Prior knowledge:
globular
Amino acid sequence: xxxxxxxxxxxxxxxxxxxxxxxxxxxxxxxxxxxxxxxxxxxxxxxxxxxxxxxxxxxxxxxxxxxxxxxxxxxxxxxxxxxxxxxxxxxxx
Length: 93
């Protein structure tokens, strides 16, 4: 889950050459964070300080890109993903 979080942060925060690829990567990152949150809750894991800092920065960037409501919707979609789907989506980053 933490490796997927690092990939989501990369997708959400890196510079993009065009807005279409930025939107795709940010949407994928938001859904991945939804999956990751659900997975961490399921295994009763918590983020260490550095993971929490990265998570907070990623969420802030995604909130700025999508707004609170759209971000919540995207994250909700990712909560239903299987592990296989989350890994496959992360490979597209």
